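Appendix C reproduces, verbatim, an entry submitted by the partner laboratory led by Prof. M.T., so that reviewers can inspect both the input and the predicted structure.
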Amino acid sequence: MTGTTIRIQRLRSPQALLAFLGLTVVGGGAAALSHIGSAAAAGETLWRDGTGVPVVTDNYEPRRSLAPLIKEIGATVVNVRVAGKMRPPIELDGIDPRMLPFLDMGPQQKQGIGSGVILSSDGLVVTNNHVVDGAEKLEVKLSDGRMFNAKVLGSDPLTDLALIQLEGAKGLKAATLGSSATMSVGDWVLAIGSPMGLEQTATTGIVSAKGRGSLGLYANSYIDFLQTDAAIAPGSSGGPLFNMNGEVIGINTAVGAMGRGPGFAVPIDQAKQVIPQLKHSGKVVRGWLGISGRDIEPAVGRALESGAVIGAVMPGTPAAKAGLQTGDRIIRIIGVDSHDIASFGDLRGRVAELKPGTETTLIVVRKDKPVTLKATVGKLPGDDELRKIGQRGQRESSGGELFPDGQPRLGVEVEATADGLQVRSVRPGSLAEELGLKQGDRLQTINGEAIRSNADVAAALGKDGGRVEVKVKRGSASHSAVIERR
């Protein structure tokens, strides 16, 4: 085992939902028209766009009753039933290994209920990624009771959207898509879905807020939630949020615990960017610059300045090649369209919508002076490549030291045996993972020092802050690995 693998800690799966003010995703947890929406392929149509005219044509007065509207649009909402194998929701970090025999670690049957909305008469349906993730079998029930088998055409964890196709469907009633950008806080909205499995449940409320970001629910996501007080609950995931014209303006995704509190929906304008790519390639390709951002608190008595402040520029990325620097504040991006930038999240979303290879102009404030830079947008890398890029950035920013915080750590859990210390687990993103250490390895020497205890490990690593050489016994063979950073 020779050579060096440079890595950083693996990014958390975007499917993993984090606790945030008691919020939870809301699906899978319960046992007159104008032009047609365009798609990636020329001439193809995937959805119908509305004109702002109510889809109900006869004597519809929303201030009196929404019954005519619900009757018209209810048939576009479906119930999604999911069965499949999934890993048990058990986090092993911090669990005493002696307890593992008492835990059921085998695969468990996933039984889920969600919602969806029909986009086309031949059974194209949009729902949430977390509803169908890991599904082995999908069944979709229409409002008239008909059942269809379905398959996943594509999914995007970073916006929690998925596209599914009903098998053998034709002549279905399709929804009309509106514009989330035209919605204002205080506008009335209507949600229809299957909360707690109760199909075709309709609730009303208002748009409570816009531009909520991902709220920490999805790691590294591109969601910019609409917030609503329309009552939704587990099982509503993937269902539509309508305006009072009967146009879909969001896809319901998250709600307060037990259905209480605010609900959140993916804006339909974001979904329109994702759906064509899911239809044609099953995944989403996003633009990328290679920067991280940081928030700057305004001085007391001063307003927060708009723009995206750069916290770090990753080496070798489009941002680095364009000449962007830490501390730059990007206030405008000119690509296919021109946009003023309100925040780093705004910039990240704008760049993500650009096709890789697109040339852009960035208007930057640097030391209180405007600077114009040219950048060619790259393709958002996968997790493995992001890990390598991030590790290179860490290495350069730390001056090449293995332990920039001054604490020599290998990143393994060990147990004492008659043959010395044996590796029980390797922490992802650790120095041990970079060295290629594996469970069962027996540590022999580190930097030439014999290893018999945890104290020996720390002392040996502390001999050199820029180089580490480890020799281990793996089965009947001996292996060694070296990492050197100067």
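The chain has three domains: 23-281, 288-379, 412-484. Additional entries are available on request from the coordinating office.
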